Amino acid sequence: MPDVVVVGDLATDVVVLLDGAPAPGSDRPAAIRSHGGGAGANVAVHLARLGTPVTFAACVGDDAAGTGLVAELAAAGVTPAVRTVAGAASGTIVSLVEPGGQRSMLADRGANLALGAADVPVPRRHLHLSGYTLFAPGPRAAGLAALAAARAAGCTVSVDPASTGPLAARGVDRWLADTAAATLVLPNADEARLLTGCADPATAARALAARHAGAVVTLGADGALWAAGDVLVHRPAHAVEVVDTTGAGDAFTAGFLSVWLADRNPVRALEAGLTQAAVVVARPGAR
Ligand SMILES: Nc1ncnc2c1ncn2[C@@H]1O[C@H](COP(=O)(O)OP(=O)(O)OP(=O)(O)O)[C@@H](O)[C@H]1O
């Protein structure tokens, strides 16, 4: 039985650095890089690098990309619990980055949509659900089964809501009902506002803490908040030269969990999350 299980998407991140939009029918040179990514996978890789043994549950297609993605996880120290889905393509996310840093994304979740309840092992200590898991019907059923099994086994569970677009599209009330039994939730400020209807992040964090044992709200360049019961703690972000904020939230989550799982000290955990996020935003790429 694994100690800590992370569930989520595994995908190739293709990043296209544009120096302008291509005119229809034209050829245009662009710097194009691709690397392993996916919201849950990034959390698992950061956790492993921080010394927390972690098993990552996901699905890939029976293609070369899938083989490479699993090998990359193993090389980072993650134990892959990854099923290969015959006839499916592995997930791919294309990010188009414009000169000012503005980012647009195209996502093909591919084999990630085939995740089923049998793909997720019950952990001994902790389950982390990446929010995308709860959006499409199949993975949602798998995520809900995993959450219920983990809680029944006495494990703690953390959930991050992924992003406001799918959260709004799939329904905030349903997400809140799905995650009611989670121990911790870790939204960013926009997600916290959507989940609670509170524009002020501190008020939103307190509202979420009334539903769970604890809530972390990340505030981008302004750092992060921890709320539990009557306690509210703010820590500022590290002052770093920001190169690329992709995956900052995943890095934060892994840093936070690595400490919280070890000693349940939320303030030290906030600081670890902010440190891991600072490392990621100061370099290109999510990992
Ligand atoms: N501009 C920034 N300067 C310094 N730190 C930052 C900046 N942006 C993000 N961070 C760090 O990353 C953490 C998470 O950022 P944010 O609140 O934007 O989460 P997110 O929206 O989930 O991120 P993403 O979707 O990019 O993964 C912040 O708490 C902070 O520590």
TrEMBL record:
Family, per entry: Belongs to the carbohydrate kinase PfkB family.
Protein's recorded name: PfkB domain protein
GO biological process terms held by the UniProt record: phosphate-containing compound metabolic process
Domain Carbohydrate kinase PfkB: 1-286
Coiled coil segments of this chain: none
PANTHER family, sorted: PFKB DOMAIN PROTEIN, SUGAR KINASE
One Gene Ontology term of the molecular function aspect: kinase activity
